[in-house]
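# nightly structure sweep
# worker-07 picked up a monomer target from the shared queue
# config: single-sequence mode, recycle default, output format = structure tokens
# input follows
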Amino acid sequence: MPHATASGPIVSVDDTGTFRIGPDGADWLGPGRPTAAVADGRVTATVEVDADRSWVVIALEALVDLDGLATGAFDRPSVGVEFTPTDRRVGDHPVEQEAQPHRALAFQHCEFALPATAGADLDGFFLLPHRPPTGWPLLVSDHSGRTVMLAPLEDFHEQTIGLNGGTVRVGWHGDLERVPRGFRTELGVFTGPSARSCLETWGSLLQERAGTVRPGRWADELARRPSYWTDNGAAYWYRTEPGLDAASSIVAAVDDLRGRGVPLGAVQLDSWFYPHVESRPFDTDEWTVPPSAMVAWEPRDDVLPDGIPALRRRLGDPPLVAHIRHLSAQAPIASEVPVHLDGPYAAPATAEAYERWLDQCVAWGVETFEHDWLVEVFFGVRELRSEPGRARDWQEGIDRAASERGITLQWCMGTPADLARSTTLTQVTSVRTCGDHGYIATAGQLWAWFAVTNALARVLGLMPFKDVFRTDAEVAGANGEPEALLSALSTGPVGLGDRVGRFDDAIVPRICRADGLLVKPDVPVAATSASMLANPAFNPTPLVAECHSDHPAGRWCYVVTMHCCPTDDPVDGVLDLADLDDGRPDGDVVLWDWRARTAERVGPDHRRPIHLGREDWRYLVLAPLLDSGMAVIGDVEKFVTAGDSRVRVRAIDGGVSLVVLGAGEDVTVTGWSELPPRSSTAPVVHDPVSGVWELTVAVPARGWTTVEVLAG
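# output follows
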């Protein structure tokens, strides 16, 4: 029986109970056969559809209490449906062949939700071997981009989609030992014209169902101003400046940045400050990130003998960001509060441990509690996985305790389940969405990882963090600027990590105002649908990613193209404005080449070639052409030229009205017009050859001023 949505049938179940999934009745995943628990009637598998919507729900519900469910492998559900893509039905007609699956993308259930792709057989996903071969959302697209997507709608830590080995296995993960009667999960099956459209529908649905309340783009100091970081990839992660101890090294770096006029906000303290089972020494050449668990969340006597409050005073009392990781079973607190134990690890079974640690945050001046190694907590302690709801209770307990103390949260090394679960949390102000800077992968591969996983974070209303970056040419080469660009486009923290005296001063004016307020887009930069599936981290094809700023006058789109794969050969492609997903223009735009400083009027169907050398990049701003014949590009000294913390644009009869922000600054606004525009506020300089105009306005101490620019 087919189950149809507004866009056609996507799930069918025949008389034998075999499932088939695909648009318009096609068979994209092959036959899906229920597991024994479904077949023998202990669990029902039903298909539910709202014909006015673009998704179908496959619901699994326990009819009795179930025990002994575990299969011995997380990716092997005891309750669910197993599909065999190589056995799919394929018609003989060329149109039917063209409409078959072409590429697949899944976000692995591992740290930072690694995006992995596969071909038409949905096998051979490149997955991190130390984590289970599972991932969702699972997106399958044909040559036209039409996509079918599978993703949980709730119970995110209890559901799995097993990958590789010739099958796609959906259902309750294989470490789930027991469930009560009435336990019910829902897997959404979505269809849409593109991968991003399916993700948008899913993300909106999750937030609607959860009543999600996000803290906004400016919720803490991390979100407001550049911050200084000491995590993996930073200059002082388990390293010190010659002749200085750990505390003095960080103080010297922060003092140096402030002396250069960098308006720093928060300062981050990473795992080096507290003891582990095997605490790593400082100033060694070994470059590993051991998963050794935390023994106590207290300063190491050999690293910070005077404690954190003393360090904060030396830093000038900034808000702190404090790192925490998974807990050792040897930790004294593990014998004082309820915990789940599993070999060397312990996981708090209630919020009591976190309440203590968050009380320490209040005492220490910590504004943001950075919980790292989320994936290790979940996979390191079996009891978190043996019964439904335990992972949710763990994370909601942290969130509740943080809210009661006015502390914000950063999630780090999270899985797709952690990102989705955040829809019921209120304190998560940022999430890491790619691997550590300068670690494991090349810079370009991390850029692609970041942009693709951001597509997942973006639809959930989260603010991604690119991680710390370095601008020191001796360390970063020419990559300091693109790292800063991606950080500025993230909507999340901008984390600086250079050693004393090595920061590139040219970076800061591009990311923030003189008072330090970051100039950011409305939504995080994310890879386009086509780019996500093309896998630019490993294939010789350019990454294309976009984000935008919305104003009453229209949408400003920011487009970055990058060479990400680890090859010295150049990559070629085509940038098609029609393929920019949310950034696709409705009409003519003025295309500002940020690096070349040139403007060009183009139509919404504009296409331009891409040719990039290794880790090279291009950055374009698409400003809407208004009815007056003018376009406002914005402050072109900033990466986000039309960010709403710098300029706000409203169309008026015959021109535009601008609100320009930044107390005490002289701000130059750049635009385009065929004819010379005019303003009663200040002179407008117009180049008749390029069409580019400039207007410089002085912003008073109140922080804003208005100006009208009229067409000539």
